[in-house]
Amino acid sequence: MPPNPRVPNPFVTPFDDDESHQDAENLDHFGNSDSQPLVSRSSPEPHLSFTSQPIMIDQPDVDYAGGGSSAEPAAMAPPEELLAPTVASAGDRVIYLNEPLRNDQAKYLHNRISTTKYNPLTFLPKFFKEQFSKYANVFFLLTAIIQQIPDVSPLNKFTTIIPLSIVLAASAVKEVYEDWKRHSSDDETNNRIAKALRGSSFEPVKWKDIKVGDILRVENSDFFAADLVILSSSEPDAICYIETSNLDGETNLKVKQGIQQTSEVMTAEQAATLTGYIRSEPPNNSLYTYSGLINLNGRDYPLDPTQLLLRGAQLRNTPWIYAVVVNTGHETKLMRNATATPIKRTAVEQMTNRQILILFVLLMAMSIICSIGTLVRTLKDPFEKNVINLDESGAPVEDVPGALKRFGLNIMTFVILFNNLIPISLVMTMEVVKSFHAMLIGSDLDMYYAEADSPAVARMSSLVEELGQIEYIFSDKTGTLTCNKMEFRMCSIAGKAYADIVPEDKKVRVDERGVESGYHTFQRMLENVNSDTTGNVIREFFTLLSVCHTVIPETQDDNSIVYQASSPDEGALVKGASELGYKFVVRRPKSVTVSVNGVNLEFEVLAICEFNSTRKRMSAVIRGPDGKIKLYTKGADTVILERLRQNNPYVEPTLAHLEEYANEGLRTLCLAMREIPEEEYNRWSKLQEKASTLLVNRQDELDKVAELIEKDLVLLGATAIEDKLQDDVPDTIHTLQQAGIKVWVLTGDRQETAINIGYSCKLLNEEMSLIVCNESNEDKTKKFLEKQLIAIKNRGGGGFGNTLSPPKPPFFTRMKDFILNNQNLEMDGELEPLALIIDGRTLDFALNKECEMAFLELACLCKAVICCRVSPLQKALVVKLVKKHRDSLLLAIGDGANDVSMIQAAHVGVGISGQEGLQAARAADFALGQFRYLRKLLLVHGSWSYTRLSKLILYSFYKNITLYMMQFWFALDNGFSGQTLFESWILSAYNVIITVFAPVIIGVFDQYINARMLDKYPQLYLTGQRGQFFNVRIFWGWTLNAILHSLLLYYMSAAAWGDSAVSNTGRVGSIWLFGSGIAYMSEIFAVNLKAALVTDLWTQFAVLAYFGAMVFWLGAYPLYVVVVPPTGMSEELLGTAGPLYSSAVFWWTIILLPVLVLLRDFAWKFYKRTWHPESYHIIQEIQKYNIPDYRPRMEWFRKAVHKVRMIQRMKRNRGYAFSQNESGTANLVRKYDTTRRKPRG
Questions:
Q1: 821 by DSSP, 3-state: which?
Q2: Which of 128, 198, 978, 1031 is most deeply buried (CB count within 10 A of its CB)?
Q3: Do residues 713 and 597 both lie within one domain?
Q4: What whole-number distance in Å separates Cα of residue 1221 and Cα of residue 611?
Q5: 115-131: per-residue pLDDT in tens?
Q6: Could you tell me if 863 and 980 lie in one domain?
Q7: What is residue 316's predicted lDDT score, i.e. its pLDDT?
Q8: Cα-Cα end-to-end distance for the chain
Q9: Cα dihedral angle (726, 728, 729, 733), rounded to 10 degrees?
């Protein structure tokens, strides 16, 4: 007996199943009963040893009566050990029906979920680990410890530990608050109510109390509390509809079906009498696969994904179902796909950390230099002997061993003296500013989605500056770019075009040759039914739409009809036909009823030839009320046109209309029919019946039988459906591309659908050459990728390492050319824009180590990338591949749980928090109501946050380096004694009181360009991508400037003060008058004037912060030296205010010295703006003086040159988009009888 096939790998996308469509040899073996029937590849296997890895199964094959998922499996006698298992085999879980005590013995996980980052036990370890991963905090902790050593610190021992404690406490409060919000969300979910079987009735139970093995009653619109296996429902044959928008963002309904053996369980009493068990696969993260078996009355029946209902999905349009819980809590497939919230570090923070390390090295160098100076002075020139009286023993002040012993302590002394070279308040200031940025994002009315009452939300305020440096966007399609709402917009019938809304310039007109062109209204179409020669074609057209489908009509309490369709396209077509007089009202197993203008007509459904990705069409054989048999077919134009009979009169005008629809980005289908003689139908139906009973290659044989009848068709026309994009999606994508951002779409949709939407949303355009990669194995994939790379390089595209970033003119030159001449910023030259289209199966091969670099190189050379039929894991792998090998910041945006892994893998994750996709929004760093808001989030808020944070960091380092380098210059003058120039407590007040507001105001309110200009000139976003506001060169430029300013401030203050200024009373000034008075005050004035010099937007807060700080300290100092010294603090400053404020030298110094120090900065700014301006300098001038922009709106010349190529490519790429489910739906739907009363359960 041959072994069973391998268990499908849950990590491989389930969408690609081309192997099931292999061509059959011929039709001759339909009646060959000698051939041994084998189990179909698509048949579920009941006896599987469930593991997450593929294994070979050494168990006997199982034969089925019918082999399809809807056919009843033949009962089989299971092995003795499976009849009453006591312990599950390795990896399996055995779930007993109505035996909670036995299930409790297995100790399955509870159903509570927790997405919090901390708990009471882990908070402190995790918090301190995260905080002390920041080098600044580590440094200040070490400094605070050193300060506690007696006779080492020249400053008060609390001057570091108190500010550090304040910083950590503020961060702790922020972390607790954010985690509390997650905890509240978890509580809301855990306390939802479900109905569980308790005894012989269903009782309300909280979600957190649901256990594995419980039987639940789920009612319409309820969410599933756990992973369930459906037993029965109110619908025929245990069918139910579910919506998975919380999982994958798709709003179209999906059909699930319980097995036949449990479909008759209609009451709680019947459910309570069920006995048996379910052997289920172990918990895993594969959303689209499931294997199991259920044992009833000693017989096993297979379970597959058709019976599985996932936690997070919602029951729709089904009054009730009964289902058994198989996975709970964090063992559900949804939660297995959720990962722990990653700790993300921004690029700016990482670079700041690196510069702090370098500054620490500089600080240590300064400390060592000063300690060496102290050592040399002590050994070579012990001036203490001359100024300090020796003790009675006459012992020397220092001998050589003592001096060397003091060397290490002196290093620590100078480390403390210079410690705030690294600003202690920087981390807290950044946290405060980022929180303000998050508030500004949340309060922006331009990003408020009123329809869903959904504002923009910044869930991770620590990442706001990353928004200004994004280079790649990875987007889901359904629910993110599109609304997944189909609308019947246009149609072509008998060569005439009709539309629901006809613009003035497209109304029907007749040219001089008498040829009619333009669009008629739908109203005119209804009139043509009886008054035009095309009336009969119109009737057949809408008859086809109303009978050739798998839609189910649901009559509501108000007698209105809601159409339930697994394909949104079909739902839109049936609804459109209904609104135009052909109302589909009843479905029975063998017929459908259509109300035509109020008259009910019954059509007998003789056969359905289902849609699949190979056929690209669907056909129905219908016997009409007149007794005639007709074949109605709809599908892609490429497959319909080749099956038409000769001399079809409507082909040419229909093709012209199809091109127009494709140009509008609409989803198109061709409709055709033919009348079938009774004898031909009888012969064909016998072949079709034989093919339907085969167990080998059944679907392939059914396809070949359908080919026999789908011929000699008469073209009726075409439909055009709008897959409604979210508002402003095309404009948003086009603007983001102008900003230098590459957009990749990762979707589970079919290739044709994805390409169609790519054109609709302007991700793709007619100028692009499409590289379509659909290969069957790894070797072919590698060869294809390498071949395309060679072709691109031969055309001048270059390679990954060099010409991916070719030499370019200076940025300002390109910016000026773009503004004035609308030239492309990337300067692509003659290289034609490319787009890569790759399917999920090929992507699996492309992501292997042998192919991944070729794939990445090719993808990065393309302007757009679309990955179709991808699984959630593949989405994350694509993001991680780019993240690993490209020095770029990535953003991922999606709306479903299948996007969570991609969102968390990217540097920045954005979730759509509108009507669907709450799972993604909760896991994301930012949440938006619609995709279009991404434009302002990145171009405006992102740019502002990046420039503000950059300027804040640079200024914070500047002001501290300026102050503490003055200590270094003073050390050179005081013989390296370790004496501080500034009194300890006013030194501590420098960062936390006196200069705290200037960086905050810069970080919150400064705008280098306003929102309107940033949106108008998206090319400015390139400044953030290239790090023009914060990089190593700029950081050390500011650092050297601060060192220069400290040098000038110290020595010019000393020169003005003299060796020792004498007051009018004849008293000599002390070090505190010079240091804490004139030098300190001058430095405060200088750094605040520097803040004023770098400010781009002046507000009342800026004036108050900069000049208010100077006035504040000027008035606070005399009050401080009067009030504080009597308390025992700052006693050195007692009595210094009078002599200081009465000195003319003091006033002239604090007024003139800061201005003189900043003259160089002002001159450099003037030179830079006048002779070597940056791009944003030009826009600032345009903004300030409101200069009009005369750049042309269209590139007419370029458009004319490429016109022919555009039209040809449009024809070549025009296909179809038909989102119907693969084969299998028709069999389920044809069991429906909408006239039958549904059981109440």
A1: helix
A2: 978
A3: yes
A4: 8
A5: 788 888 888 888 888 88
A6: no
A7: 84
A8: 44
A9: -170
State the Cα torsion 1210-1213-1216-1222 to the nearest 10°.
-170
Counting residues of the chain whose pLDDT is more than 70, the rounded percentage is 80
pLDDT band with cut points at 50, 70 and 90 for residue 1029: very high
Whether residue 763 sits in one domain with residue 678: no
Cα–Cα distance, 502 to 521 (Å, whole number): 6
Task: Give every CB contact of residue 331 below 8 A, 6+ residues apart in sequence.
Answer: 108, 109, 283
Q: Are 1006 and 948 in contact (CB under 8 A)?
A: yes
Q: Residue 878 to residues 249, 745, 867, 874: CA-CA distances in angstroms? A: 20, 11, 9, 6
Binding residues for Mg(2+): 476, 478, 895, 899
For residue 136, the enclosing domain spans 112-192
Pair (216, 166) in one structural domain: no
Query: Does 1081 lie in the same domain as 1002?
Result: yes
Q: Is residue 187 part of a domain?
A: yes
Q: Is the per-residue pLDDT at 1025 higher than 70?
A: yes
Rounded Cα distance between 934 and 912, Å, is: 10
Total tally of structural domains belonging to the chain: 5
Mean pLDDT of 692-701: 81
Q: Which of 16, 476, 723, 1006 is catalytic?
A: 476
Distance CA 237, CA 259 (A): 8
Q: Of 1113, 1133, 1161, which closes a domain?
A: 1161
Position 465: which residue type? E
pLDDT(43) > 80: no
pLDDT, residue 571, reads 86
Question: Residues 371-402: pLDDT tens digits?
Answer: 888 888 777 765 555 554 444 444 444 556 66
| 855 and 976 housed in the same domain | no
Which domain-ending residue is among 816, 847, 869? 869
**What is the C-alpha to C-alpha distance for residues 550 and 886, in angstroms, rounded to an integer?**
47
Task: Kindly state whether residues 864 and 1004 are assigned to the same domain.
Answer: no
Assess contact for 644 and 715: CB atoms under 8 A: yes
* Residue of 86, 87, 81, 65 lying closest to 301 (CA atoms): 65
Q: Are residues 660 and 767 located together in one domain of the fold?
A: no
Q: Which pLDDT tens digit goes with each residue over 164-174? A: 887 788 888 87
1172: Cα separation from own chain's centroid: 39
**Between 567 and 394, whose confidence is greater?**
567
Q: What pTM, to 2 d.p., does this model score?
A: 0.75
Strands 889-894 and 470-475: parallel
Give yes or no for a contact between 698 and 692, defined as CB atoms under 8 angstroms apart: yes
Tell me which DSSP letter residue 225 carries. S
pLDDT attached to residue 1064: 56
Round to whole Å and give the CA distance between 214 and 568.
34
User: Does residue 700 carry a catalytic annotation?
Assistant: no
In whole angstroms, give the CA distance from residue 629 to residue 640. 20
Torsion of CA 833, 838, 842, 848, to 10 degrees: 60
Residue bearing tokens 């010409």: 803
Task: State the Cα torsion 1054-1055-1059-1064 to the nearest 10°.
Answer: -100
Smallest CA-to-CA distance from 717 within 660, 641, 646 is with: 641
Where residue 636 falls among pLDDT bands split at 50, 70, 90?
Answer: confident
Question: Average pLDDT, stretch 1186-1194?
Answer: 62
Which is nearest to 1145 in space by CA: 1063, 1046, 1050, 1049?
1063
- pLDDT-based confidence at residue 938 (cuts at 50, 70, 90): very high
Query: Exposed/middle/buried for 83, CB within 10 Å: 0-12, 13-18, 19+?
Result: middle
What is the distance of C-alpha 1103 from the center of its chain? Answer: 40
715 belongs to a structural domain: yes
Cα 1218 from Cα 254, distance rounded (Å): 16
Contact 490, 498 (CB under 8 A): yes
Binding residues for ATP, by number, are 476-478, 570, 611, 634, 667, 747-749, 869, 875, 898-899
Amino acid 593: pLDDT: 93
pLDDT at 70 over 60: no
